[in-house]
Design a protein that fits this description.
This protein is α+β, with helices and mostly antiparallel strands and 395 residues long. It is built from seven helices and 23 strands. The strands form five sheets. Strands 9, 10, 11, 12, 13 and 14 form a six-stranded antiparallel β-sheet that branches. The protein has a five-stranded antiparallel β-sheet with strand order 16-15-19-20-23. Helix 6 (257-269) packs antiparallel against helix 7. It is globular. The chain starts with a helix and ends in a 20-residue tail after the last strand.
């Protein structure tokens, strides 16, 4: 059963104030021999909470903010373990068995060092970002990446068998990422990937930590996490967000991504370079036309429901949701982002629904049916990423 917003307010505020720090503990063992597994990484994905098992296979995660998380256990040579858990006041005891990973031969892709370097530079732009923070991000172990580029489909693929480690010296985090199935599609302009990550604080002086704090605050306000937290606490207007239903129609002069991809492949395979380039140019056209905001702005109760599971919320908005953040401006031009001529140059994000509703948790993290993001949030990369348990200053 789903409840309207007015009931939801009274149900969840007591949960937030009473449940301060959760504890998760247990033992990690080999599923077959039942022997403990030392030095396994145990962490809550997207958070700054993580540890390693001791020689006896035991682990403990403490000081966890209430909310839903994905608990991940990883060690080389074993299948990765993940489980969704809801953290509250009561301690969680969870013993975990890991199965050994069968030996698999990876397909060998022969490429030159120049090709790998070119692919790696494209990967860095898509995965880490191109903003000022990205300039202060160092990839510690790029050699673990498996990179392949399909020139016919114009898709760059990447994955890794162990943690990709990135030091974000702009925000003061070391991010360890188990990257899975990264795809950068140049025709559609869409980047998608899966994986688990954990944050560690970088050591620094008091002056460095102060600067990191300022940068983290800048990254948080106006972010997707900030929006979802503001939504379920009914503080959108107070926090600077305005939301609208949005109408848009596909540009009839631009073929679909699939048609462009198919035509490009055919002409390229047949040596028709000019025709192939023609479809590359078509891919750069705006996908939409005749766009408009539906007035007036939406209230929280029009898009938000409490989910059937405790600690989760549903947002529903039809095909598109237009989100304006009035406390930041955005000067980066995007041909596919509509802006009314009467609106100031605020940061704008457009969400396209992939399901009847999107599920998110109390930390402001989407946990199911994530929408497609365009605009400000779509440009956010690892360089701007914060752990889900980040707590900003109260302003």
């Amino acid at each position: 059963m789903r409840f309207p917003w007015l009931i939801l307010t009274y149900i969840f505020f007591p949960f937030i104030t009473l449940a301060q720090n959760g504890i998760i503990s247990g033992v990690v063992t080999n599923a077959e021999s039942k022997k403990p597994l030392p030095r396994a990484s145990v962490f809550l994905s997207n958070s700054a909470v993580g540890s390693a098992t001791g020689e006896d296979g035991r682990y403990i995660l403490s000081g966890v903010r209430p909310g839903q998380y994905t608990l991940v256990v990883s060690i080389l040579g074993y299948e990765e373990y993940s489980k969704t858990i809801l953290v509250g006041r009561e301690p969680i005891k969870l013993d975990i068995e890991l199965a050994q990973k069968p030996l698999q031969l990876r397909e060998v892709v022969i490429s030159s060092s120049a090709d790998w370097k070119k692919n790696y530079e494209q990967f860095k732009k898509g995965f880490i970002g191109t903003d000022e923070n990205a300039k202060d991000c160092d990839v510690i172990n790029p050699h673990i990446l498996n990179l392949t580029y399909n020139p016919t489909k114009q898709i760059l693929h990447a994955d890794a068998d162990e943690f990709l480690v990135v030091e974000n010296k702009a925000l003061g985090y070391r991010v360890k990422f188990l990257l899975d199935d990264y795809n950068d599609d140049r025709i559609s302009g869409i980047i998608g990937y899966g994986g688990q990550r954990v944050f560690e604080e970088l050591p620094g002086s008091a002056a460095q930590k102060k600067k990191w704090h300022e940068k983290r605050e800048e990254a948080y306000y106006g972010s997707e996490m900030h929006f979802y937290r503001s939504l379920y606490t009914d503080k959108l207007k107070e926090e600077g967000f305005i939301i609208y239903h949005f109408n848009r129609y596909f540009n009839p002069l631009r073929p679909s991504d699939e048609v462009i991809r198919r035509k490009f492949k055919w002409f390229k395979d047949h040596g028709r370079v000019d025709s192939a380039n023609y479809y590359v140019d078509l891919s750069k056209m705006s996908k939409y036309y005749n766009e408009s905001l539906v007035q007036p702005p939406l209230f929280t109760f029009e898009v938000l429901n409490r989910d059937e599971q405790q600690g989760l919320f549903d947002i529903h908005f039809g095909n598109y949701l237009y989100i304006v953040y009035t406390k930041k401006t955005d000067d980066i031009f995007n041909k596919d982002i509509y802006r009314p001529i009467t609106m100031s140059n605020y940061a704008v994000t457009i969400l396209t629904s992939s399901a009847p509703y999107t599920v998110f948790d109390m930390n402001g993290i989407v946990v199911a049916n994530g929408p497609l993001r365009e605009g400000a949030w779509a440009r956010n990369r690892l360089s701007d990423l914060l752990p889900v348990d980040y707590v900003p200053d109260q302003k």
